[in-house]
UniProtKB/TrEMBL annotation:
Protein function: Esterase involved in the hydrolysis of xylan, a major structural heterogeneous polysaccharide found in plant biomass representing the second most abundant polysaccharide in the biosphere, after cellulose.
EC number: 3.1.1.-
The organism of origin for this protein: Zopfia rhizophila CBS 207.26
Family annotation (Pfam families): Esterase_PHB
Biological classification of the source: Eukaryota, Fungi, Dikarya, Ascomycota, Pezizomycotina
Keyword Glycoprotein: yes
Protein's name according to its UniProt entry: Carboxylic ester hydrolase
Length: 292
């Protein structure tokens, strides 16, 4: 019988895990006021001016789970992108998209910690500050909307799946969301102007551009209901000053409808007929929208 040393086993396990694909945790990336965790995946021989993609998991999720749940990192790294996977440490492992600290620039919430992660990567790898993107699902999609609204100068574009409009989850400090409306049951309906004013209110006086938005939602979603998709499109159509132009049916697959606003460069929606919570990440469509 051959006995293997503990160190040998640990080394072999490490090599096996690396072959499967793992994330590297980064500590001390900034003051991290929200106390969340940062994980990264960097291409071999990463080039200067590489794009950055922030990938945000949903409630009850984790950085590693989202990383392993789709092929976003594999394809994005082939296109030279550096991946950041934040991981929530809050109750239910959701993102804070509603308290004042998260809806104020540098207010001490999750968005500030995530932006510190981006700045760390820009400084550490000489990455391209003009090509920072977000992909998010469910609570991660909600945070993607918040990041686009609160830090419009940091992010270039987002691709978000089954989320809600920025500001939808806003609650008074110290008061949790209504437990009967935990993820947005579509009870808040506003005009496009009102939603747009919400976004503009996060950065009074800001005159720069806002991130381009690609928004996905399933018609059979009973957790974050379809009305939230409508409100999300209202919000960003007003912010970008574009109107609905046309539908493209069966795009990117049967049962999906692509909803184009303006020329489709700044805002596009995807309505997924019969799909519940959540719409899967469409990697090629996201990366193409980002220009990668």
């Amino acid at each position: 019988m051959v006995f293997l040393s503990t160190s040998y086993l640990a080394s072999a396990l490490s090599l096996f895990t690396a072959a499967q694909g793992v994330l590297t945790q980064v500590n001390n990336f900034g003051s991290n006021p929200a106390g969340i965790e940062m994980y990264i995946d960097v291409p071999n021989n990463v080039a200067a001016n590489a794009p950055i993609i922030v990938a945000l998991h949903g409630c009850h999720g984790s950085a590693q789970g989202y990383y392993q749940g789709n092929n976003l990192a594999t394809v994005a790294k082939q296109r030279g992108a550096i991946m950041i996977y934040p991981s929530s440490t809050h109750d239910l492992l959701c993102w804070d998209c509603g308290t004042r600290r998260s809806l104020i620039r540098d207010g001490g919430g999750d968005p500030q910690s995530i932006v510190q992660m981006v700045q760390y990567i820009i400084n550490r790898y000489n990455a391209d500050a003009s090509r920072v993107f977000v992909v998010g699902t469910s609570s991660g999609a909600m945070m993607g909307n918040v990041l686009a609204a609160v830090y419009p100068d940091v992010f270039a574009a987002t691709s978000v799946y089954s989320g809600v409009a920025a500001g939808r989850m806003a609650v008074p400090d110290g008061v949790p969301p209504n437990p009967y409306d935990p993820c947005g049951l579509g009870h808040i309906i506003r005009s496009p102007q009102d939603w747009g004013n919400t976004v503009r209110g996060y950065n009074p006086g800001y005159t720069g551009s806002y991130p381009r938005m690609q928004i996905w939602h399933g018609t059979a979603d009973t957790t974050v209901v379809y009305q939230n998709f409508i409100e999300d499109l209202k919000e960003w159509s007003n912010v970008h000053g574009v109107s609905f132009t046309r539908n493209v049916t069966n795009s990117p697959q049967s049962g999906y409808t692509q909803m184009i606003y303006g020329d489709g460069q700044r805002l596009t929606g995807y309505s997924a007929r019969g799909v519940g919570h959540t719409v899967p990440v469409y990697v090629s469509q996201a990366l193409n929208f980002f220009g990668l």
